[in-house]
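Schema walkthrough. Field components (list of strings):
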Amino acid sequence: EAGVTQFPSHSVIEKGQTVTLRCDPISGHDNLYWYRRVMGKEIKFLLHFVKESKQDESGMPNNRFLAERTGGTYSTLKVQPAELEDSGVYFCASSPVGGPYGYTFGSGTRLTVV
Amino acid sequence: RKEVEQDPGPFNVPEGATVAFNCTYSNSASQSFFWYRQDCRKEPKLLMSVYSSGNEDGRFTAQLNRASQYISLLIRDSKLSDSATYLCVVNKGGSYIPTFGRGTSLIVHP
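Field assembly_structure (string):
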């Protein structure tokens, strides 16, 4: 079974540019989560999809962040325009419907804004 | 007070030692509890769920104390390969949204 896949693994962009991160969850997992870990801090929840619907986006920092999950399959997280404080590791995780189950994480996208 | 608090360590122990980590949570309505392991520059991986009655998986034992709102992880007979950061994860009460602690760093040395 393929795991959670994230792309790209690394991204270095300049302040003010746009970056789009992609997450492919495990097939059949309706729950999809985005998290961010800033250096030295704990992993923070950003938002939660159930299929294509945003169930909880209370963790999104501001309106420069836009997440989508068209068709309830893969998800994208766009940061526009990027700021220095957006640097960190962005993790995606998925889990089956129901639960609670443990979450399977992708390997993350390391974003550096310079 | 943080929602999930862990002693960041590092815990530096010799091979074969027994080590215990604690984690406290603030939301008394929390329902689900997990321990994750994260290796350097890798993603978190589920180590074990924590059940009310306590549970064991090989050298690892997890306990939950709802009255005091803490969970623990005990590692017996530590191996070099146990060196990692151990993350306490608690689901928000009434939802399946997990809240992470900052993690406890374990270093097992020869």
